[in-house]
Amino acid sequence: MKDINSIAIEVVMNAGDGRMKIDEALAAMADGDLNGAQELLKEAEALIVKAHNAQTEVIQSQVSGESMEYSLLFIHAQDTLMTINTELRMTKKLLPIVKMLMEKKEEK
């Protein structure tokens, strides 16, 4: 297995790239581009999954008995991933609300 700090950086980088896609999706929603927002959220989700898989590799190694050094960076990476995953979930839930509001606006 790779060094725990290398994996932590991988988690942070992928999660951070996912956050950038989420921000782009929110901007697309604000512009009324719901299809674009949906595509950006798919890209964000793929990046979050990559980050999660890297984190899971460490957890599975530790559970199987492999000794791990303590890493504050890895704890930070887990926190970052959890926060950005929540942002992704909330943005995905926001998409149909924005769609409904746009449809109501068009009705008037």
Q: Would you write up a description of this structure?
A:
It is a single chain. The protein is mostly helical. It contains 3 helices and no strands.
Mean pLDDT: 95
Which residue ranges are poorly predicted, with pLDDT under 50 across at least 5 consecutive positions? none
Shape type: elongated
What share of residues are in beta strands? under 5%
Q: The biggest beta sheet, please? A: none
Structural class comes to mainly alpha
Estimate the helix proportion, in percent: over 70%
Number of strands: 0
**If you compute it from the alpha carbons, what radius of gyration comes out, rounded to the nearest whole angstrom?**
17 Å
Give the number of helices: 3
Distance between the termini: 59 Å
Name the helix and strand elements from N-terminus to C-terminus, one letter apiece: HHH
Short description:
With about 110 residues, this protein is mainly alpha-helical.
List keywords for this structure.
single chain; 3 helices; 108 residues
Task: Lay out the secondary structure.
Layout: H1 4-30, H2 34-63, H3 72-107
